[in-house]
Structures are given as C-alpha cells and as structure tokens.
Amino acid sequence: MRTCYYELLEVDRTASGEEIKKAYRRKALEWHPDKNHHRVEEATKRFALIQEAYDVLSDPHERDWYDGHRDAILREDDDIYEPDVYDESSSRWGFRTSVQGTRTEDLMRFFTKACYQGFDDGKTGFYSVYRKLFEKLAEEEEDAYSHDRGEDADDFHSYPSFGDSTTPIDPNDSKDGNPIKNFYTSWLNFSTQKSFKWFDKYKLSE
Hints:
Elements: H1 5-9, H2 17-31, H3 40-57, H4 60-75, H5 78-81, H6 104-108, H7 126-147, H8 179-188
Organism: Rhizophagus clarus
Domain J: 4-70
Pfam families: DnaJ (PF00226)
C-alpha cells in the first residue's frame, strides 16, 4: 500500500509551502543513506519517497492534482493507472458507433509525477504506468483503424513499446535497433485513426 505524501513528510494537509520545505529538509536529513549505514537499503528507498513527496507537494499544480486524487492513489485504484479502453456511453443508437476510448481528462492524470511511484517495473512504477498507457492508446488506434475506418486490422502499423527499466539506451545493445528512438519517432508523428463521431449531435441518416 502506498504511503500518503503528507505522512511521509509528517505535515498536515493544510501545511504551507514553507512548512513543507522545512519538513522535507528535516526528513531528508534523517533518512539520508549516508547517515544510515546500518540500514542503507531501507534508507535509500525512504529517501527517494521523501524526495518524490516533496517534488509533488512543493509544486502547486502537482499538489492540487494529488489532493484531488489522494484517496484513489492510496487505494491504488486501477483506474488511476489504466484509462478505460471504451466508453459505451458514446453509443447513441443502441450500438457502439465509434471508438472513443481514452478521454482528455484521462490523459491529464498522467501529466503529474503523482501518477507513478518510483522508477521501477512495479505496478505503480514509472515504466509500468506509462507503458500500459501507451499500450491502451495503441489498442484504441488499432480498433479505430478497423472499426471507424473500415480497414483491415492486419494492415495497421503497430506502435513500438514504451519499454521498461531494462530497455537498452545504446542501440548496439538491442536486437531491435534503437527502441527508444523508434518509440519517440512513432509517437511524435502520431495521427489518430479515430473518427470522433461521438461528437455528432445528430444522426444524419434520419
């Protein structure tokens, strides 16, 4: 279970920016690995969490988002990390008329450091959270390609994986060339296959 950022710094949720800064300095000093030779591994993890908590709570926008989603984050709700693939409410006439999938408000949850915890491959780690997000987006695009565009799914250009903590940075270390470059090149040239028919106010055939 995740630990509340306010509890990590031992401050109230109404604490001022200055109080948060002072608490961070105090806790960082207490848990710095150099001062905890008898528990280096534990201290290193704790120190990283304290830094993470301060990074979020010291930024007004990050803190506001965290406060609004704190309970769900502490429960580790799946919907914080994985946007819904389909929104059946987009069907106006008894069937799904187009692929809506991830909404803007879903994506905004991933523009904050509070949506992940640590840079590892755990369920809530940086790599897992963003890999699952891009996998969802890619799945939606493939479905839209065949459903909205009426194209053969076998002809769909698949998107490279976001990777994980073991993805090599040096292209010489990968049999797939340069996986990081491939990922960014593909998504920087992204153009959706979705028709956005769910925004239609009327059924034009009527």
